[in-house]
Specification:
three-stranded antiparallel β-sheet, 41% helix, 3 strands, alpha+beta
Length: 74
């Protein structure tokens, strides 16, 4: 993920696919995922309002399906 003035650019080296995160709240949510024990905690850390959970959950699922968002084990 590369920060950009509009949000962020995602690049998948395997598929060479580009994705753009133009929503700052989605960018904050993606960034908070690795610092939060649960997705619900990440939503809270990114200040996502409860009424928007479904929309942002769907965005995360799309990123996951396209392999732009993967779980990293440390």
């Amino acid at each position: 993920m590369r920060p950009e003035p509009f949000g962020a650019l995602l690049y998948h080296f395997g598929t060479r696919k580009l994705s753009f995160l133009k929503d700052r709240m989605l960018l904050d949510l993606v960034n908070s995922l690795d610092r939060s024990p649960t997705a619900r905690d990440a939503f809270s850390a990114a200040n996502i309002p409860a009424v928007s959970f479904d929309r942002y959950k769907a965005a995360l699922e799309t990123l996951e399906r396209s392999a732009m968002l993967v779980e990293v084990y440390s």
